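Hi C.,

You asked whether I'd gotten around to modeling the 480-residue construct. I have! Everything is below, sequence then structure, no commentary in between.
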Amino acid sequence: MKAFALALVALSILFVSAAGAEEAEPGGAAKPPQPSAPLINAAPTNPAQGNAVQAGPPPAAPATVKSTQIVGDCIGDNRFIYHAGTPVLRTTTFLPANNSADFIVQAEFKPQATYYVKFDAPYLPKVSGGKNAISIAPIAESSPYVKEGIASKGDLLATVNVPAEIGSYWRSVYVHIYACEDSKSPSTNGVIRIRASSSRWCTPAVVGTVLLLYLAAAFAFRRILPQGDRRTAADEAAHQRFLDPVVLTAGVDGKGSLAKLQILFFSVIVFALLLFILLRTGELSALSETVLYLLGIAAVGSTAAKGADQQQSRLDFDNWSWLVQKGWIGVRGLARSNEAHWSDIFTSDGEFDVYHYQSCIFSLIVGGALLVVGVSQLASFEIPTSLLGVLGLSQVVYVAGKLVSPPAMADLNKAIKALRDLERAAQEAALKAVPPATDVNDPRIDTEVQRYRNAATTAADLLHAVTNLARPTNFEPLLR
């Protein structure tokens, strides 16, 4: 449980740090956007810009003629008294504070004008923005916005830098985009109302939602304690450690499962990123092929490992029923008798497994990179092909190791079947005696009982060695 708490704190700190890198502190200098070609009022870009800002891929902008002179602000402090008749369309549902966003301005491009963007809201002490916070150019016919029907050829693409101070809990902001050809009045003037988001609100919402869903899953699958003497030590441990992800993702044998833990690990990270981007922009981000591969590798590895466990580590039903009746294992078999530990993630058959360790450390590295980079680049997140291959190869070796492991369970099944036959022989000898023997210490069935006891001792040692369960102490045959 301590390891789980430390891991949870580390992931939360990493996510908060990544989100904090995506948005600066209030009052910090906003980072202007980078155009793909010379634009009017062009300024350097925000390097964190990605799918967290745009509804689609960044559109290509054609080269334009830069204004030979800077025209002063023709609106200034007049609080937008001029009629705003130019249509302005948004490309995201929310406006992410301290990041870049695109707007479609349905107006003719004016190369000799200076373009301005202003942000106005009731909760702002003053209007913010200016000519340095906007880059604008005609939209090319090949632009994704044109292909998706959001814009038409000849419209303007305005990429604006959103100041940090407008970030809020999704309150409305007015975005004014206008062009000044002289100091008298704007020649192009548009305004749009949009809700502004802030990572200071999105991050706690994401962390709280992830924790709430995890707690719901943990409580839903919390092991129910049997009554009376049917309760085992493993039952008690699983009931108390139900929040531990190793217990939640334990395999069919009750031990920790690396493959299932990897699925949980990557699934939580991807869900957190998708929710964060949704709250920041109001758009559902796409997933890169690398992210799909990561989820697929973990899922295939888990399924294959489960099949290998069923094949290599499964007791025959008759043997399982007999062992439960004798009290050697619990009613849920090995799953109820084994206790999941973090050491199971790095060991195989009680020994340190270098392939488990390799897969685990590379998963942590990739997961950390995904959490940091995916905040702004989830749709384009990539890792080197060689590293992706290492993760896939680790899963292959992990499953192959299960398939080629010594057939210890097969030997145990044979020993238990032989023990059942010896018990049946003792029962038949007891019935043939006149009167029938009811005591295992009856000298008339001493030979059959001693054979059973010797075989039971050997079978108990083998059960302990194969399953790591407590060594049984009941070595007497059941005569009736």
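If it helps when you're writing up: The chain has 13 helices and eleven strands.

Thanks,
B.
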